[in-house]
Design goal:
By secondary structure, the chain is of the alpha/beta class. Bound molecules: pyridoxal-5'-phosphate. This is Tyrosine decarboxylase.
Length: about 525
């Protein structure tokens, strides 16, 4: 592999064709083989890679190659350099964070979108991308039984509709900016430093980050404490207290981020009660259902979205649990023009008839960036290929595997389930026994290190109510019951190592009931 020499005379290549149609099929087939081989082998690979920081620099040349190579050479480099450093999210033994699911339909849809490669900032820049996005968001809205006010096809005459963002972070930021501008207008031009935004101490950290970007005073971002007793959900009465105190102090409540399925423990904030409080103070309600929103396509989970009909906006990330592949966050608003009021631009070089006609939406005005990928295609391909029945079966199968895991944990008295499982995440840990909380944390940290160090599973942690807790998230696309069962065997074996010689009597302890939390 030749590397670049600053003094190398310019290399000229005759007939260089970066998209050589004669060789394209063969080249694409190389990538197909690569992908299929990867998926077939991934189960046998360590889930968490065994590499040290800086590992890649020892494998790949520091300077860019002066002369090109074949795609086969590049694929060999990927094998040698990239795969060993992959945290294998596609592994069926991946139980960390929230899994990023990807069905073959999304893979194909995204592949085609990549090949078409439109930059769909305005309707005219790619009518198909804009219109498929509206269609697929309306489909999703029906799947989730969202009120018609959130659909762009609604006859209700409102300005409802959606947009696909890359991440929940962008959805929160953009809705926060729209809420900010509305609050400033309504309060007669108060400075942004007087506005207040609310979440709970379980709200994703990206909410506080969005507040920073949007210019909120850090002192005016309220993360209301939650407790085990209410399942770590935001308590509406405490929200009201906070808003009332702020209003009395001359501040302006502007935005509340409610969560359906918090990241630590999948707690569900009571949307209706939060909307009641927000209405008193004229506050924008955003619902972040990044993970658990996908489950609400099943009737038995839909109740967790109850109250959403009174929210201003809702975001769900099909890239988490709906097989769509990163990245794809659906954002719906009951008044979509509010986004454009805050984020719209109209430069000369993008002006065109359809935009001026007012008959079309230009997605650049509903997001942070201008250019955007054709993400709707993969989401549409997923829905078209799997149908509602397939997607519901997928959610239910993950939930069933998580239920089985929860049952195995509950059957071993060395462990406790820390909050009752709601979706496909189980929060559990080795119980605190004689050594108290500090010893329990040490035990669980050690367990996590041993499990993850084995390469045979990857599990992550959180802290809930001061307790160090393991999160076992079922739902990597290739995961089957046998993977869950063998992860549990691994956890038990490593727990034997952690607890070592400690007599089981000492673990018999005084924990009659593992979990008594009132939910709902
Ligand atoms: C994953 C997650 C996020 C972060 O989403 P990004 O798309 O990475 O910005 C936000 N909120 C919740 C509830 C999540 O689970």
């Amino acid at each position: 592999m030749g590397s670049l020499d600053a003094n190398l005379p310019g290399v000229t290549i005759d007939g260089f064709k970066p998209l050589d149609l004669d060789g394209l099929r063969e080249q694409l087939l190389l990538s197909v083989d690569f992908i299929v081989d990867y998926y077939k082998n991934v189960e046998t690979q360590p889930v968490l890679p065994q590499v040290q920081p800086g590992y890649l620099r020892h494998i790949m040349p520091a300077a860019p190659p002066a002369c090109g190579a074949t795609l086969e050479d590049a694929l060999r480099d990927i094998h040698r350099g990239v795969l060993p450093g992959m945290t294998n999210w596609a592994s069926p033994n991946f139980f960390a964070y929230f899994p990023a699911t990807l069905g073959s339909a999304a893979l194909v849809g995204d592949f085609i979108a990549s090949a078409l490669n439109p930059v769909a900032f305005t309707w005219l820049s790619c009518p198909a991308a804009t219109e498929l996005e509206e269609l697929v968001l309306d489909w999703m809205a029906q799947l989730l039984r969202l009120p018609p006010a959130f659909r762009s096809s609604s006859d209700s005459g409102g300005g409802g509709g959606g947009v696909i963002h890359g991440t929940t972070s962008e959805a929160i930021l953009c809705t926060l900016v729209a809420a900010r501008d509305g609050a400033v207008r309504r309060a007669g031009g108060v400075p942004i430093s007087r506005l207040v935004a609310y979440g709970s101490d379980q709200t994703h950290s990206t909410f506080a980050k969005a507040c920073r970007i949007a210019g909120f005073d850090q002192a005016n971002v309220r993360l209301i404490p939650t407790q085990l007793g209410s399942g770590y959900a935001l308590v509406a009465a405490r929200l009201r207290d906070a808003m009332a105190a702020d209003a009395a102090a001359g501040l302006v409540p502007a935005y509340v981020c409610a969560t359906v399925g918090t990241t630590s423990s999948t707690a569900v904030d009571p949307l209706g009660l939060i909307a009641d409080v927000a209405a008193e103070f004229g506050v924008w309600v955003h619902v972040d259902a990044a993970y658990a929103g996908s489950a609400c396509i099943c009737p038995e989970f839909r109740r967790f979205l109850d109250g959403v009909e009174r929210a201003d906006s809702l975001s769900i990330s099909p890239h988490k649990w709906l097989l769509t592949g990163l990245d794809c966050t659906c954002l719906w608003l009951r008044d979509r023009p509010r986004l454009a009021e805050s984020l719209g631009t109209n430069p000369e070089y993008l002006k065109n008839g359809p935009s001026e006609s007012g008959l079309v939406v230009d997605c650049k005005d509903l997001q942070v960036g201008v250019g955007r990928r054709f993400r709707a295609l993969k989401l549409w391909t997923v829905l078209r290929t799997y149908g509602v029945a397939g997607l519901q079966a997928h959610i239910r199968s993950d939930v069933e595997m998580a239920r089985a895991f929860e049952g195995m944990v509950r059957a071993d008295r060395r462990f406790e389930v820390v909050v009752p499982r709601r979706f496909a995440l189980v929060c559990f840990r080795i119980r605190a026994w004689g050594g108290g909380e500090a010893a329990a944390e040490a035990d669980n940290r050690m367990l996590l290190a041993l499990v993850n160090g084995s390469g045979r599973a990857y599990v992550t942690h959180t802290v809930l109510g001061g307790k160090y807790v393991l999160r076992f998230a079922v739902g990597s696309t290739l995961t089957e019951h046998r993977h869950v069962a063998s992860a549990w065997d691994l956890i038990r074996a490593k727990t034997d190592e952690v607890l070592g010689g400690r007599p089981l009597e000492e673990l018999r302890v005084v924990f009659p009931s593992s979990c008594q939390v009132a939910l709902d």
